[in-house]
Design brief:
The chain is of the alpha/beta class and 375 residues long. The chain has a domain at 20-157: Rossmann fold, CATH 3.40.50.11890. It contains 15 helices and 8 strands. The strands form 2 sheets. A 4-stranded parallel beta sheet has the order 2-1-3-4, with helices on both faces. Bound molecules: iron/sulfur cluster.
Amino acid sequence: MFSKFFEWYEKRHDYARDWLTKNDGEVVGCFCSYAPEELIYAAGHLPVRMLGSHEPQDVTEPHIFGMYCPFCRDVLAQGLKGRFNYMKGIMLAQSCLHLRQSFTSWRNHVPVDYAYYLYMPNKVQTDHARSYLAGELAKFRRSLEEWTGREITDEALREAAEVYNESRRLAHEVYDLRKGPNPALTGLEAMVMVASSFMVDKKEHNAELKRILPELKERRLDRETGARLMIVGSEDDDTEFIRMVESVGATVVTDDHCTGSRYFWNSVEFTNGDILSDIANRYVDRPTCPTKDFETRSRFPHILQLAKDFNVDGVLLIQQKFCDPHECDMPPLKEYLNENGFPTLFLEFDVTVPLGPMRIRVEAFLEMVGEEELF
Ligand code: SF4
């Protein structure tokens, strides 16, 4: 049922090249889930987020510190190796310093026609964030218009936001089917469904979701659910890891990370006012990355509510090695979840993860979850 999503995910470069032959636009690489893709889409381009290849590499050492997160290095490595040589534009909405270095090195060392750095405020909790970001989006809009010489109308922005909102609503519908005692899909399928939405024209992705949803609602998986787990943390599209977890007596039923629910959780709320302000509000109000979660820690109650809504038995706290934002968040988050009755297992990710040792740790965790003990 999810074969199209797996195909898109696995053949992402084929999809993008094919898209270019059929459309009068460019592929624009986005470095973070804070990228306001609606603007790129409204300009007639295909926004694509660069995700991990999960292959060991040795090309980033001259460009980026070895103690920057493996995800940023993996992304940059693919650029340096020419995997995205069809991509004419890149953009970063500021999130963390690690990813910013990937963007800067890509801009300097990988041939692209267009590179845009968007000053996405980190302090989203200030009163000024909304108007500030709306102003930055206006600059980004002008920059895109200058690049291709095409006007981006308010109407095109509204249409793009509607397409993106539909994608978000459909993803919610799919996630809702994981709340009951027998989830209609595995965590692996959900991961690939969301990850592929970063790579495919949202209209096409929406059409496929609408096609499978009626059947998905009736689906009964031929497997035991086992322990119901949640994944929380840094970027995670490691399909081998989740496949392993779901092979040892568990099902991942929800998540909070930037390649999962954080990407689609909230929508653009339309007012009759300025469409750029509506889009800016969406990015200010979305479930935050730890880089932007201060002074109030808004992430924690949101994560707790997800754990309750999806009836989670335990939480896997996933951190990309050296990811400072998540590393600072993990100890208080672990304490918070434990105090609220959710056992946690902390795991550190690299470009590839040692599945054998991790399997042993996950199995031990599942035994403890089964005994309803807390760490
Ligand atoms: S995993 Fe952490 S360090 Fe890496 S890009 Fe994401 S927030 Fe930045």
